[in-house]
Write a sequence for this structure.
């Protein structure tokens, strides 16, 4: 049975940071599911890419997934604003249980809410690095960083490295 990757996202995601890793994972034989507020609801990226939510966050069970992908753009900040904290709780399952967790650009913002970054080495786009450092992470400026189960990258320019490492994590 193929490993399944949860992709948590809402409107204004960075299009290529969702589509490129999703394609790399699927091409490597993994299954992906888009998780958002409402199943069957269409989401629109910053540049017009459209995706449909497969599973609502209310129905998604983190233990049913082998990995988590958090694309960047404005989506992670919107997800952090979820009044019920559902996305932070969902994400925390992965970081607490050493399940592969992949975040690019602004995606690591959602990792801040897990309170599990203390002592971890992380990267992200320049304007989230202070948040990551304040959460206790050792922040570096590299195209991709692998710290145990967490893989992070900075920008769309890093997608080749990011995609390679997320596939490697699931093949181990």
């Amino acid at each position: 049975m193929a490993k399944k990757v949860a992709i948590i996202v809402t409107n204004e995601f960075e299009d290529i940071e969702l589509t490129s890793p999703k394609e790399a994972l699927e091409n490597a034989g993994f299954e992906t599911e888009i998780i958002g507020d409402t199943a069957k609801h269409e989401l629109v990226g910053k540049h017009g890419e459209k995706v449909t939510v497969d599973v609502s966050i209310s129905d998604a069970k983190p233990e049913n997934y082998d990995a988590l992908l958090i694309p960047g753009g404005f989506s992670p900040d919107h997800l952090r604003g979820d009044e019920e904290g559902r996305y932070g709780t969902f994400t925390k399952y992965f970081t607490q249980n050493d399940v592969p967790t992949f975040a690019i650009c602004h995606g690591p913002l959602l990792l801040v809410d897990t309170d599990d970054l203390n002592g971890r080495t992380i990267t992200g786009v320049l304007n989230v690095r202070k948040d990551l450092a304040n959460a206790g992470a050792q922040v570096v400026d590299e195209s991709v960083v692998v710290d145990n189960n967490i893989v992070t990258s900075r920008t769309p320019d890093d997608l080749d490295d990011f995609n390679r490492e997320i596939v490697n994590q699931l093949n181990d």
